[in-house]
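Sample entry (203 residues):
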Amino acid sequence: MSCWVPECPSLSMCRGLATLPITCLERAKDLKTRLGILLHTPELRHRIGIPSKFQLGSRQRDSSREVLEWRESFDQLLKSKSGVTAFHTFLKTEFSEENLDFWLACEDFKKTRSKTKLASKANRIFEEFVQNEAPREVNIDHETREITRKNLTGATSTCFNEAQAKTRTLMEKDSYPRFLKSASYQDMTKQATSRGISKRSHT
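Predicted structure, serialized as tokens:
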């Protein structure tokens, strides 16, 4: 009596390959080799968007230098998109990201040209960040809050200047020093420094 055993799929595939003419298998190997050679040519790598080692190295050097520049001044940090992102992530751990979000909202507000949009944006920012018991109320004094409220009656691109300046000073004196001492930024500077040392040792 014979019993049926299901055939292994990989075994069937191997048998199928074995039935192919030798010329087909050789052509497949040749195509694989040619494709590998082409992917190493700079022209094709550029066309299909694969960065070369030089490009990757250049980006790493730029980002490393940028990371180290953040500790030079608060302005250097705010000028860097990746710096703002890193600082925002840190502020989230302290539950104080509303200060940076307000500062960024004010920067965007200053770029508004339409008077109609200016007024609606001003009210939205005030309601979200400035008024008493706002959903994301920033830490500013009562006098600055009232000055900002009065500025809304004839909203201009400068109506949040005083409140924005107070919030910026608070971040610079309070949150920024802690960010520089944080484990996350210390790790980033170590990596940036090690990349710089590695680069010098290879030149």
